[in-house]
Design brief:
The chain is mostly helical. 77% of the residues lie in helices and 0% in strands. α6 packs across α9. It is elongated, with a radius of gyration of 29 Å. It starts with 8 loop residues before the first helix and ends with a helix.
Length: 318
């Protein structure tokens, strides 16, 4: 593996050509994966790919004029000093912000490479082209700002922000809310049944811990395996499953942890307060993200929670 300082001018130009071709293909991949949800940003990535193709043609013309048509095979992987790129463009659920950050990093790295290469170039034509490319890449470093300003000017920013919110609700909030409801409500019966059956805090804690973790695993797997997200656009199944499973576990652990307190009645009182807080949080999430009237949401969730709680206490006390 060589260092940049060890490369000949022919190898520097060949590496620059390889970089421009690779970067253009990455931008086109971004555009392809983002087009369905972010068509305006996809179009801008296509414009950047076209610019990279233009740079490549300029470099190829210069190379042929100096060294002929036999291009040495050299890539980024053959040269020390380049950052190892995380192939975010291969992700099925590519996020717009991730694409912007990665593109900005690509442009910064390219700018530094061209600036370093220009300093080492002996031929004045090569030196000028590399210096011009360094300036061009530096102009792209503020990619996120550039994309944001152009989107605002075109009026597409609001549209894409609405799309982002819709996908966030679809891919994260909905599965997490389902998990939180299940964890907070369905675990009430076994936990309080065990608590009132034994009047022992530790037994209630063990049952609650098992119910919370078990429900989290079950709900997570159910969400992940129910829909691969290809048709519905609900995102990566394991991301949704993770959100659902974690929220389920948290919902159950909230009113389980107070039973680490040895005093049974004190633990039960604190658990009851936490249950009330959980139900209010669920109602707030439904109001905030699901457009459910808060009064309706709070009544529905409290009635359901109280019913399950009453069942648990009744069974445990019998």
């Amino acid at each position: 593996m060589k260092r940049v300082t060890d490369l000949s001018e022919a190898e520097i130009l060949a590496l620059a050509i390889s970089n421009e071709e690779e970067d253009a293909r990455i931008y086109l991949s971004f555009a392809q994966r983002l087009r369905a949800n972010y068509p305006h940003s996809a179009g801008m990535f296509e414009e950047m790919a076209a610019e990279e193709h233009g740079h490549r043609h300029s470099l190829l013309a210069l190379y042929e004029s100096r060294f002929g048509k036999e291009l040495p095979l050299i890539t980024r992987q053959d040269v020390k000093g380049f950052l190892k790129r995380n192939p975010v463009w291969l992700h099925e659920d590519l996020q717009l912000d991730a694409a912007r950050r990665h593109a900005a990093l690509m442009e910064l790295e390219a700018s530094r490479f061209y600036a370093s290469a220009a300093e080492r170039a002996v031929d004045t034509g090569t030196r000028k082209l590399l210096a011009d490319l360094a300036e061009a890449e530096r102009a792209h470093e503020s990619l996120a700002e550039r994309l944001g300003e152009e989107l605002k000017t075109s009026g597409a920013a609001d549209e894409e922000e609405e799309t982002r919110k819709r996908l966030f609700v679809l891919q994260i909030v909905q599965p997490a809310l389902a998990g939180l409801i299940d964890g907070s409500v369905s675990t009430l019966a076994p936990i309080f049944a065990a608590a009132f059956a034994t009047h022992d805090s530790w037994n209630a804690f063990v049952v609650g811990l098992a119910a919370s973790i078990g429900a989290g695993i079950s709900m997570g797997l159910t969400e992940a395996l129910s829909d691969d997200g290809v048709v519905t656009g609900r995102g990566h199944p394991w991301v949704r499953g993770g959100a659902c499973g974690i929220a389920t576990t948290i919902g159950g652990l909230g009113h389980t942890l107070p039973y680490l307190i040895p005093d049974f009645w004190l633990a039960t009182a604190i658990a009851g307060v936490i249950v009330a807080c959980e139900l209010v949080v669920i109602a707030w999430v439904r109001w905030r993200y699901m457009d459910t009237p808060f009064g309706s949401a709070i009544v529905q969730i409290i009635l359901g929670g109280l019913l399950v709680l009453a069942v648990g206490i009744a069974i445990g006390s019998s």
